[in-house]
Design a protein that fits this description.
The protein is built from 10 helices and 9 strands. Strands 1-4-3-2-5-6 form a 6-stranded parallel beta sheet, sandwiched between helices. By secondary structure, it is an alpha/beta fold.
Length: about 290
């Protein structure tokens, strides 16, 4: 790894991005990429630090991607704090922030889409059917724009990570995909940009989710039938104070498919999505 204390560069066009990366490549430097939607927190910075450990130069994108939001979702109110994001990225060792406009990412007349199956089909895919097609499209575009040696994603969005890994294999991207464990606060709550929507009382409820998932993971690991594990976890999430649940499920860690035998037979994750008021939170743990 090459030590480089240059200041953070901010670029907004594909041409500027590629010019900067060409300069690094001409010097023989490796490139890591961290895609984000901004509103950065310590979890994002963990991804940047991992990228810094693994490559000579790090690019992070800050782009709230409209193609992964349904019309009724929170695209308009999704938190945006570009100046603070730039400061945080610089402090974590990132050397280039790519902050394109929607028009730069999706030029007028763009019609290409990506259809994803496999790990995208259930869970988030059932409740947010537009999401993973939009994620796959923007990540594929970003991969082509940055052309990194590796890209770093958080395990908090476990299903998204599985979808990206599948896409990279299917489309023959020569990019190593690195997953980083979920960053949590002192109470076990997974760090998320959407936590900013919660008041103190709601935060207290949100911090119970990790404990419910830990109990479910332990029960599944002990061989309890998964129908019972999921039923008990569902009841526990509601008892914790959540208003409603989209899913609580134990699935194969790679394919996100249910275990046909009804018990855990290999690497697995317990995943949940639940609502507090108008805020939707997701989390997952290894089994």
């Amino acid at each position: 790894m090459i030590v480089d204390d240059a200041p953070l560069q901010i670029v907004r066009s594909v041409a500027e991005l590629r010019a900067a990366i060409r300069g690094w490549r001409a010097q023989g430097r490796s490139v890591a990429f961290v895609p984000t939607m901004g509103a950065l927190h310590e979890g994002h910075l963990d991804l940047v630090r991992e990228a810094v450990r693994r490559a000579d130069q790090v690019v992070a994108s800050v782009f709230v991607n409209p193609t992964q939001f349904a019309p009724h979702e929170d695209l308009g109110r999704y938190p945006r704090q570009e100046a603070k994001d730039a400061e945080l990225l610089a402090g974590a060792g990132c050397r280039l922030m790519y902050a394109p406009s929607v028009e730069e990412m999706y030029p007028a007349g763009a019609t290409t889409t990506i259809s994803v199956g496999g790990p995208a089909e259930d869970l988030e895919g059932a409740f947010r059917p537009q999401m993973f097609g939009g994620v796959a499209l923007v990540v594929a575009k970003l991969f082509n724009q940055v052309r990194p040696d590796l890209a770093v994603f958080g395990e908090k969005d476990w299903q998204q990570l599985a979808v990206i890994r599948r896409m990279v294999r299917d489309l023959d991207f020569q990019i190593e995909i690195v997953g980083v464990p979920t960053a949590r606060d002192g109470h076990g709550l997974a760090l998320s940009s959407r936590n900013a929507y919660l008041n103190d009382a709601q935060l207290a409820i949100a911090r119970r989710l990790n404990g419910v998932l830990a109990d479910a993971a332990a029960s599944a690991r002990a061989g309890t039938p998964l129908a019972a594990v999921e039923r008990e976890a569902h009841a526990a999430v509601l008892k914790a104070g959540f208003d409603r649940i989209d899913y609580v499920a134990v699935r194969d860690a790679e394919t996100l498919e249910p275990f046909r035998s009804g018990v855990v037979e290999g690497p697995a994750r317990v995943l949940a999505a639940a609502w507090i008021g108008t805020t939707r939170l997701i989390d997952n743990l290894a089994v």
